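Late entry, evening session. Most of the bench is empty. Finally got around to the prediction I had been postponing all week. Sequence below, unchanged from the version circulated by S.P.
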Amino acid sequence: MVKQILVFILLIGFFVGCATVGRKIDFSKVDKIKIDKTTQREVLLYLGSPDTITRQKGQTIYMYQYVNVSSRPENFIPIIGSFVGGMDTQSQMVMITFNQDGIVKDVYSSMSSSDVDSGLNTGSKADLKEVEENKRPK
């Protein structure tokens, strides 16, 4: 019985290691979108259906989003994992606004990647010299 419970807990830990929302965005296709030229139909051909559609003041807004969070392998080391673990995150976002005629008015996009530390791995004090040199604290 104890062996079965241990296997169950290990399986849960294995499958909880990551989460993804949305579809990865191909920015080479985003680059094909031209302001004042590309139509809604062409955007749908390039990127597929949007995650969110908003209509406001005669404009239509398509929003595409992707977020991936992955636990680091260190998290799964008993006892030690809670002190040195963390997660890695990636996100992408594209927002496209269309005028009343269905032509692209604006395109906004962003990509980010970050490390989220936990336990003893978190927080470091910035060295004033590093801040002055516009360096990110380690």
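Two things to note before I forget:
Confidence is low (pLDDT under 50) at residues 124-138.
Strands lie at 18-22, 52-56, 59-71, 86-98, 104-117.
Will write this up properly tomorrow.
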